[in-house]
Specification:
Gyrase A, domain 2, single chain, 12 strands, 15 helices, Rossmann fold, alpha/beta, Four Helix Bundle (Hemerythrin (Met), subunit A)
């Protein structure tokens, strides 16, 4: 992505969606943006273009009229990219858009690469790297939760936390290095206990950031939920109830579902990607056995597994045997409660205790009694999962969603904990400074204070043209 030779070039691309529509918007950015638009829109040739003003004009290609357009101007330093920028609003014909882009290129512009407008915004100091990642998250957001989270990141709230950490680490490093300089004179610039306390405070903040990643990823991308359990316990009926459509085939024949059936739904501002899986059981059927193995893989990759069983029978020996495949976070779902005549809470407690005693690799989040035939079942199940993730309030500004930020934060946290151990052990300031400097570089890499081609490619490779 980083190519110094392109910095002097003016770039252009379609900024609105492709395909026909009422209007399309073409973006032009770079040192010659005003010059190029004046050459295409002759009525603007004699005008002094003012920033944040819209001009009605005609767009020409080799003196042939292409379209009547609106031209919005942004002066250097006052645009999204920080450069001279023009936005051309034209009629949404693919043919017109192509002609306009061809003309801009003939007049000296070059086609923009994916994410190049945002890349230039970053290079010109309009955005840091955390905000640049948030731009793509805003574009890709599919729910209220992911949009609100992305907008807070774009506003710089997460960046502010990392900047604060950077400032504190810089203070600690400066005082440690000053102590090295004055060590021959027997002068202690800063007490080790002060450094340890400051680094401990930073580690608390970083732990909160690192721990937020799981919830942040779910809020951004959706909750991956897997329905698991033996055949004929009502998993397919529950899937249809949760996604509000007949997505899975429902019969009373054991083993009807032989492969993973997937669907998505939005509930309470969260996206849910829900998978119905083949019933967990031992079988000699080759095809069904493949489905069972896929079910186990889905369970491993899920955020939450709904382990479904028939409440009329309670957790059977076969249920418990198949529950050995469960890992991670589990909600125990007792289905067909409409057929159950005994005391529900007592049965749920008994089943939960039995499953907990059997499998130490799981965390049972709750035990729910439902009937796939009841309308409220969707609210009961998805409401419970939603409440689990809403415990990490969307207003928490320390939530991160980027794997890149998670990796660098984790590395920085490990180095700071190492720093604290080194100070407690009375190691020389030269060793402490070296470790702390690497922690600081990790934080600066998050913000984009230091970067290389690999970091840039990772951040901008998923962007669309025109952004």
């Amino acid at each position: 992505m980083y190519d110094a030779s392109r910095e002097t070039k003016t770039i252009c691309a379609l900024a609105s969606g492709s395909g026909s529509g009422a209007i399309s918007i073409i973006r032009l950015s770079g040192p010659d943006a005003f010059k190029i638009i004046k050459a295409a829109c002759l009525s603007l040739n004699s005008k002094k273009l003012e920033s944040h003003r819209v001009y009605l004009s005609h767009f020409y290609k080799n003196k042939t009229l292409i379209d009547q357009v609106l031209v919005t101007c942004f002066e250097h330093g006052k645009s999204y990219t920080g450069e001279q920028t023009i936005e051309i609003s034209c009629h949404g014909s693919h043919h017109i858009v192509t002609k306009i882009l061809e003309t801009l290129i003939e007049l000296g512009a070059v086609s923009a690469e994916k994410g190049e407008f945002t890349f230039r915004s970053f290079m010109n100091g309009k955005l840091d790297l955390v905000q640049a990642e948030a731009v793509l998250s805003v574009i890709e957001s599919q729910t209220d939760a992911s949009l609100n989270l992305s907008l807070r990141q774009l506003e710089g709230r997460v960046s502010k936390i990392f900047v604060d950490i950077e400032d504190k680490l810089t203070w600690c490093l400066a005082h440690i290095e000053a102590s090295i300089d004055f060590s021959t004179e027997g002068i202690d610039v800063v007490d080790n206990n002060v450094l340890i306390q400051k680094l401990s405070d930073i580690s608390v903040t970083l732990k909160q950031i690192v721990n937020s990643y799981t919830a942040g990823r779910v809020l951004k991308n959706g909750v991956k939920v897997v329905l698991a359990g033996q055949p004929n316990v009502g998993k397919s009926s529950l899937l249809n109830s949760l996604v509000l459509e007949d997505r899975a085939i429902v019969t009373n024949i054991a083993g009807t579902t032989r492969d993973v059936v997937q669907s998505s739904t939005v509930y309470d501002g969260l996206k849910f990607d829900i998978s119905d899986t083949a019933g967990l059981r031992e079988t000699s059927d080759i095809v069904e056995n493949i489905g069972v193995e896929r079910s186990k893989q889905e369970i491993k990759n899920s955020d939450i597994t709904l382990f479904v069983y028939d409440m009329a029978t309670g957790l059977t020996i076969d249920d418990l045997k198949q529950a050995e495949a469960l890992v991670g976070r589990v909600v125990l779902v007792a289905n067909k409660k409409d057929l159950f005549n005994n005391e529900i809470n007592a049965q749920l407690l008994k089943d939960s205790s039995a499953l907990s005693a059997l499998n130490r690799n799981i965390t049972i989040l709750d035990t729910l009694a439902v009937s796939a035939l009841e309308v409220l079942t969707r609210d009961i199940i998805l409401g419970k999962i939603s409440s689990i993730y809403k415990q990490n309030e969307y207003s928490d500004d320390s939530i991160i969603t980027s794997s890149r930020q998670f990796e660098y934060s984790s590395q920085a946290l490990g180095l700071i904990i190492q720093n604290i151990d080194e100070l407690n052990a009375g190691m020389g300031n030269e060793y402490v400074a070296q470790t702390l400097k690497q922690a600081l570089i990790n934080i600066q890499s998050i913000l984009g204070r230091v970067f290389d081609d690999q970091i840039m490619d990772r951040v901008f490779k998923e962007f669309c043209l025109g952004k």
